[in-house]
Specification:
21 strands, 11 helices, alpha+beta, elongated
C-alpha cells in the first residue's frame, strides 16, 4: 500500500493483523459473488450442451425426411462370389440370370532372354500393328534391372516389366485381345502368352469383352469375373425389385432415437439435480442450476407428446408405435423401467421391417419422406425450430448467461477496487494513529525530562 505504515511501533498493537482481520470481514460478500459466478458458468455450460444435442437431434430428424434416405435400391447377389461378383450402379431389370464364364480376360505377356546391349541404343515397344508406341533409351552394358526400371518409368509404354530369373518379362497393363504388343532391343523372345477377351453367356446370350469388369452387359449392374465356371454349369445372379433400402432406413430411425435419448438423458439429469442449500464451496454452488427448470420440463413434455401422437391426415400407419418406436413398457415384472418412465425411445426392428415389407409407402409418409405430405419429421421439426440453433430459445438463454457472467465480472472488479480503497483507508488511519501516539509519547518524554530537571534544581 502507498503511504507510511507503522505497525504498532508506538501503540504496541499488531496493526497489520488487525487490518487483515477487518478486511476479511469486509470481503465476506465477495464469496457470494464468486458462488454466483460458478453457478452461472455451470448453467451456461449445461444450456450449451442441451443446444448442441438439439442440433444433433434436428440433423437426425431431417434425415428421416431426406430424399436421399428414400432413394430406391435393388439387391444384387451372386450365387458364387468366387466366380462372379456384381454391383448395382443404377436401375436394373429385376429377376434371375444364369451366367456361364468360359474364358477370363488376360493381358498379353512376352518373355525375352535379355542381353546387355554392347552400345547405347533404344528398346522399343510396338503396337499390335507394328507402329512404335514407346522408345526407351538403354546405355551400353545396361542390366535387366536397368531395363525394368526404365520401362516401368515410361509414361507411354503402358507395359509392366519384371526381372524373372534374369529374363525380361513384359505384360500389358490392359487385358483383352487388343492388348497385344511386341518389343525390339529386349533380346530373343522365349515365350508369348496372347491377350484374350472375357467370354461368357447370360441366360444363353453370348457376351465378349476386353476386361473382366463388365459394365454394359446387364443394365444397371457391373459384373466382375473371378473364375471360369465348370463346363455345363452356371452361376446364378439375382437382381431384386426396386424398393427402399431397409437397412439405411432402420439406421436413420435408430440415429434419431439415439439423438433423442441423449437429449432426454442430459435434460432429465439437469432437471433432477437438486441445489445445495447454503453452498460452502464452488462445487456446491454449481449443483442444481437447472433444477425444476420450467423451460426444460415443457420441452420434454412436448417432445413426449409428439412421439406418441398420431399424425393427422394419415391412414393405416399413423403413429411411430406402428413402426415399433415407443418408450417401451414402464414395468418389467416387479421392476420399474426407468428409461420408459423418463420417456426414452426404443426400436423394435422386427416391427419396422415388417412395416417396410408390407407398406413401404406408408412408412415413408409417416416418417415424412414423401414430398407434399407432412409426416412425423415435419411435425417434430416444428417443435425443434424455435428451440435450436442460432437465435433459438436455448441460444438466447446461453447469450443471457454470458451477459450475466460479464455483469458478475464487472461486479467483482468494482468490489475489489472498493476493498483496495478500504484497505488503504485503514492503513492510513492506523498510520496516523501511530504517528499521533509517537508525537504524544515524545511530548510526554520531553515534559518528564523538563519537570525532572527543574525539580532537582
Amino acid at each position: 500500500m502507498a503511504g507510511i505504515q507503522l505497525s504498532g511501533l508506538a501503540s504496541g498493537m499488531d496493526t497489520a493483523s488487525l487490518i487483515s482481520q477487518l478486511m476479511a470481514i469486509e470481503r465476506t460478500p465477495r464469496t457470494k459473488i464468486t458462488f454466483d459466478q460458478s453457478a452461472t458458468t455451470k448453467r451456461q455450460s449445461l444450456l450449451q450442451d442441451i443446444n448442441t444435442k438439439l442440433t444433433a437431434l434436428k440433423s437426425a430428424n431431417d434425415d428421416l425426411k431426406s430424399a436421399a434416405t428414400w432413394v430406391d435400391t435393388q439387391s444384387v447377389e451372386s450365387g458364387d462370389a468366387t466366380k462372379l461378383t456384381a454391383t448395382r450402379t443404377g436401375g436394373a431389370p429385376p429377376g434371375g440370370y444364369d451366367v456361364s464364364i468360359t474364358q477370363l480376360a488376360t493381358a498379353e505377356r512376352r518373355t525375352y532372354g535379355f542381353q546387355s546391349p554392347a552400345a547405347d541404343g533404344p528398346l522399343k515397344i510396338l503396337n499390335q500393328n507394328g507402329t512404335e508406341r514407346a522408345s526407351i533409351d538403354l546405355k551400353a552394358g545396361a542390366s535387366v534391372d536397368d531395363a525394368v526400371s526404365a520401362i516401368n518409368s515410361s509414361t507411354d509404354a503402358n507395359i509392366y516389366a519384371v526381372n524373372v530369373n534374369g529374363d525380361l518379362v513384359l505384360a500389358a497393363k490392359a487385358t483383352g485381345d487388343s492388348s497385344q504388343f511386341s518389343a525390339t532391343g529386349a533380346g530373343a523372345e522365349t515365350e508369348r502368352v496372347a491377350g484374350l477377351n472375357a467370354k461368357l453367356t447370360i441366360n444363353g446370350a453370348p457376351v465378349e469383352r476386353q476386361s473382366n469388369t463388365i459394365t454394359d452387359a446387364l443394365p444397371g449392374v457391373t459384373l466382375t469375373l473371378k473364375g471360369k465356371t465348370a463346363v455345363g454349369s452356371t452361376v446364378g445372379l439375382s437382381v431384386g425389385t426396386p424398393g427402399p433400402d431397409r437397412d439405411a432406413i432402420a439406421t436413420k430411425v435408430q440415429n434419431f432415437i439415439t439423438a433423442y435419448n441423449a437429449l432426454v438423458t442430459t435434460t432429465r439429469a439437469d432437471l433432477d439435480e437438486k441445489r445445495v442449500p447454503k453452498a460452502a464451496n464452488s462445487a456446491d454452488a454449481q449443483k442444481g442450476t437447472l433444477f425444476g427448470d420450467s423451460g426444460l420440463s415443457s420441452m420434454l413434455s412436448s417432445f413426449r407428446a409428439s412421439v406418441s401422437a398420431p399424425i393427422a391426415g394419415l391412414s393405416g400407419l399413423t403413429a411411430l408405435t406402428d413402426l415399433g418406436i415407443s418408450t417401451g413398457a414402464a414395468n418389467t415384472g416387479a421392476a420399474v423401467n426407468q428409461d420408459a418412465v423418463d420417456g426414452k425411445l426404443v426400436l423394435d426392428t422386427t416391427k419396422l421391417n415388417a412395416a417396410l415389407d408390407a407398406n413401404p409407402l406408408g412408412v415413408r409418409k409417416l416418417l415424412g419422406g414423401l414430398s407434399g405430405t407432412d409426416g412425423f419429421a415435419q411435425s417434430f421439426g416444428a417443435l425443434l425450430a424455435p428451440l435450436q440453433g442460432t437465435g433459438g430459445i436455448f441460444d438466447a438463454r446461453v447469450t443471457a448467461a454470458t451477459k450475466d457472467l460479464s455483469d458478475i465480472a464487472d461486479k467483482l472488479t468494482t468490489f475489489d477496487a472498493r476493498m483496495d480503497a478500504k484497505e488503504n483507508t485503514y492503513n492510513k488511519k492506523f498510520t496516523a494513529l501511530e504517528q499521533a501516539m509517537q508525537k504524544s509519547q515524545a511530548v510526554g518524554s520531553s515534559l518528564t525530562s523538563y519537570l525532572a530537571s527543574h525539580t532537582t534544581g
